[in-house]
Design a protein that fits this description.
It is built from three helices and four strands; from the N terminus they run H-H-H-E-E-E-E. By secondary structure, the chain is an alpha+beta fold. The two termini are 25 Å apart.
Length: 108
């Protein structure tokens, strides 16, 4: 479920559906405008994830329900695997797409 949630959010970012990302994450950390600005300022076009993608996943110890901190790579037309990453907090809500917060979009 972690990977499917990340892939869903990334797909929305890649297709420039920033308001949908804000709605999914309840705009807790980043608004649609802030998301768009971070990606636009980077200056490269996002491409779909490859079949295999390596996520950096850390379980938050003692969290109930279970929670994870995830750093996910970004892929672009210009670079392939990019220096840009998305940082997420995911909480198990029993659904296919976990409750999500987009904590940051930044250059690693």
């Amino acid at each position: 479920m972690i990977e499917s949630t990340v892939r869903h959010i990334y797909s929305l970012l890649q297709s420039q559906h920033y308001e949908a990302v804000e709605k999914l994450t309840n705009g807790i950390r980043l608004s649609a405008d802030e998301i768009e600005e971070a990606i636009t300022d980077y200056g490269c076009r996002l491409v779909p994830y490859p079949d295999s993608v390596e996520l950096d996943i850390v379980e938050v110890t003692g969290s109930t329900p279970k929670e994870w901190s995830v750093v996910a790579p970004v892929f672009t037309v210009e670079e392939g695997l990019s220096d840009l990453s998305i940082e997420l907090s995911l909480v198990d809500n029993g659904q296919e797409i976990y409750r999500s917060e987009l904590d940051n979009i930044r250059v690693r």
